[in-house]
Every structure is written in C-alpha cells, then in structure tokens.
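Cross-posted from the bioinformatics board.
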Amino acid sequence: MIKHMPDTESLAARTATLGLALALTACASTGGHPKDPFESVNRATFSFNETADKYVMRPVAQVYDYVPLPIKVGVGNFFGNIGDVWIGVNNVLQGKFIDGLSDGGRVLVNSTVGIFGLFDVASDMGLEKHDEDLGQTLGSWGVGEGPYIVLPFLGPSTVRDSVGLIGDLQVDPVWQFKEVAVRNSLTGLRFVHRRAALLGADTTADQAALDKYGYMRSFYLQYRLNQVYDGQPPRVKDPDDE
Amino acid sequence: MKKIASLFAALALSVGVQFNAFAADATAPDALVKSVTDDVITIVRQDKAIQSGDTRKAVELVETRVLPYFDFAHMTRLAVGRDWKTASPEQKTILTQEFKTLLVRTYSNALTQYRNQQIDFKPLKAKPEDTDVVVRTEVRQPGAKAVQIDYNLEKLPEGWKVYDVLVAGVSLVTNYRDDFGKEVRAGGIDGLIKSLKDKNKQLDTTASAKR
C-alpha cells in the first residue's frame, strides 16, 4: 500500500522526524520530569496548540456539533469502519488472533449490511469495537515509550507513539486517495469529528489542573499505558500510599 | 398470606432500623457503586436544571449522594505522594478540604453533560476477604467506543470507600502528583495549599460569572 504514497512525502516525513528529534535532543534540560527531557520545547508547542485550538479547531468543532446526532454517528461509524482494518492487523501483530478475526468480521459486516460502514451493525451483533494502533503494538512488544513529545496540532505523544503514528499514516485508507481534494476533505472531516467528540470534556482539564501542561502529560502517559495493556495495566501497590 | 405480609413488615422494619449499618457495612463494593450510580442517574434524568448546566445543583447532588462514599483523606494522600509525610496534621486537613472542593467542582460539571449514556457493570473479580478492590464499569454511547471507568475501593471499619477513580485508565487522583510535586518544590506544602485555594477561588468566580 505504501507505493500509493509518493516517495518524497514519506521521505519528508522521516526527515522531519529526524530533524525534530535532533532539535529536541539539543535542548534537553535536566532536573524536570524524568520522561520529559524536552519540556521547554514541548511547553512552547503546547501553548501554540492551545491557541490554535481556541481560535480555530474548537470553534469549527462547535459549528460541526450542530449536525444532527444520527449523521454524526454515521460519520463516526464510517471512519471507525475504515480504521477497523488496521486495528485488526495490529491485533494480529500483538498475537490476539481472535480479536483480529473479530475486527475482520466487523469490516465485512459493516461494509455490506452496514452500508459502507455508516451503521455499526457488527457491534449490535456482539462484535466489539477495539482500539489499537502501531504505537500500542510496539508497546506490547516491549518497546519503551521514550521521551514525551508534544506534536504540533496533534498534541501529546511520545517518541514510540510518534513512530507508530508515521506507520499508521502510511497505511491509513484516507491517505491512500489519489485525489487530493477527496483526501483532504476526508482528513479534515475526521479531524473535526474527533475534536467535536471532545467538546464538553475539554473544559474539564482547564478546571481540574493547576498546570494544564503537566496535567495533560500525566494524563497521556497513563492513558497510553492503559491502552497498551487493553484496559488492565498491572496494579502496583503505590509506594507513597501508606 | 397474612404470615407472609407480617414477615415482610418485620423485614422492612429491620432493614429500616439497620439501614445505616447496612449501607455502610454489609454492602458489597460492586453493589455499592451500582446503587450510588443508579441513584445519581435517576436524579439527573429527572432534573432539567442539571441537564441544562446548573453547576450548583450538580454540586449539591454530588455532595449529598456521592461524597459519603469517598475517602478524601486517602485521595489527597495519593495525589500529594511523597511530600504528604512532610505535612503537619493541620496542613493535611486543609489540603484534603481544598482538594475535595477542587474535585467536586470539576467533576460535578460532568453530570451536566450526561445524555442517556448506558452504564455497564463488569463482574467483580475479588475474594471475600479482600479489603482493596477494583469495581469496573463502562459507559456506552452511540457512535463512540465505550469509556472505561474503574473505581478503587478500600474496606474501612465504617464500610467500603472509594479512594480513586480511573477514567480510561487515567487516575483522577494520581494525575495530580506531578502537578502537586512541582508546587511543593517551588513553595513547600504551604505553597501547594495557596495554589489550591487560588484555583478554587478562580473556579468560584467563573461559576458565578456564568450564572
């Protein structure tokens, strides 16, 4: 599938990642959070993202949110169905063959009976929706997360998850569309849909945190650990709880 | 028939008399979480004010129906982490009070976002002699993946108490640890207390500005 992607583009992505990694290493600081050696750069990116979200992404998502619920559900199901192929592959890569088979079944059922994935018939049949990506697969193979990174526009990540994300994008069906207009429209719609799903919950972090940056970092790291362990991370007795 | 009726009456009476003891002691942790959740959802479903975003009413509901089953001293100890030992008893009391206020303010708002999501309770995996258990639940809504919510409970002399809530694997309590640690390093325990008080005051003003 990679051959559909112009070589220059993936090369550019790789160069950008390398450049980013080097730039980050150059300004690594000491004394901060052990998983966040690039805190000063990350904080700058974080506040850029916050501003972009406040003035662009959130307002767009708020307009999108006026779309009637059944249509929004259809949009979510459509992108969910597209994503299920890669989720299934990742389940197989993690050795969870039954789950992978179930994901394949979901795609078959939802693409046909569910009319191009607009209806999630498979869930009603008991084929549960999973949540996997390459970053989680790498994690399940024992690859450490590496330093925490805040990506422009995309937000919290780690070195491992960023590498995973590049892999995810290489095989992403939406990115395979040759027609740029279609590809960009679908990418935009998916982005807005995801952002709109967070409306309501997004203000919680503002209210809860003393320092939103640190709060989101801790949130992301716990969230991904939970995902890598499919919702059952090892329960360790807290050394500070006595 | 009459016998059965009187039996029921006696049962009802004894349940009534022992209600407090029963609620605190004998209820299994999963049953406790379920009954509190059902209780709150029933109220939110009928309360138009909460549905339309009345934070004050949501806070009231949480304070009367949910808080009695939470152990805030334990929660605060977990959130502060290592520095907790260095706090004086007075500081611990104030920290607990302020942290409780912050959590209640923040998460009561979540109730105003409730829109008929369905909550599934997973079977409890625990031995009868366990004193520390996880009750797992899932919030389902159309068109989205279910959100996992886990409650950590500890058995105390007065009954089971929640000391941590994990949403999608993220502890609402230990998520504060980095944040709090930074405050303590910068200004000691008193610095953390001041930051918490300022934060609560700020939430107070925004809430009343909205009203």
